Amino acid sequence: MTENEPDYSSMRRVVALTIAGSDSGGNAGIQADLRAFHVFGVHGCTVLAALTAQNPFGVRGILTADADFIGMQLDAVLEAYAVSALKTGMLATPDVITAVADRLLPHSRISKVMDPVMVATSGARLLQDDAVATLTETLLPLATLITPNLPEAEVLTGHAIEGHDAMVDAVRELSDTLGVAVLLKGGHCEAEEAAEDFLYDGESVYRITTPRIVQPISTHGTGCSLSAAITAALACGKSLLDAVVDGKAYVYESIRTGVWVGEAAAVLGTPARLPVEQVRVDNE
Q: Which residues pair with 86 in a beta bridge?
């Protein structure tokens, strides 16, 4: 490099990609993903797989993007941007899932966090019934990590999951079936003192907990935020376990710092720091 030549290495930024739906309220979906990417200091690329008309109280409508156009978006991003990690969120139909899987198959170097979004917090169904088989057969096996919550894990395993021991068994079962690491989110559990998730990386099961926040003003978008934060941490070079710890800390702080944005509408906060000291990791 000559004396007057700019140092281009200092002008580079890590890139992460989200393939998901848009939340018109800005709480979840691609909007939540970009917020997490910003906090982690990575550049966020987007592929819009669906538009939703929603607010914190419900989903009023869903417009799924054409599968060919989703493929065009992916081609445009992947041919020009140095994507280090990506995440998937709401992919509503078999055609959309297949289009995404086909484009991602050649990109084994990219870390992939897949959130098998099936039902919105409000209860609205976000995944067609006939799309579950396509998801499990074509897309999820390409993942570095999948992040189902309990109801989603019950759909994927085909049976109920109740209690600590059942969660440990389920995270191993899903990993063995799909051949990927699994983070089973326990937010739907009624644990009194801690919000606990279970990570299985193919070798060890970890119980990852944060203190449970009593009466949060918003939890809408926590699933998207968690998978996006993990994706950003992986893009920055973190190990899988460290990325999950960072993601868990990000969500904890987002819930803790929630803000009101309307008379009865609240959103997650935007953390200024990651309180990793609040995250406890135990071997199971």
A: 17, 112
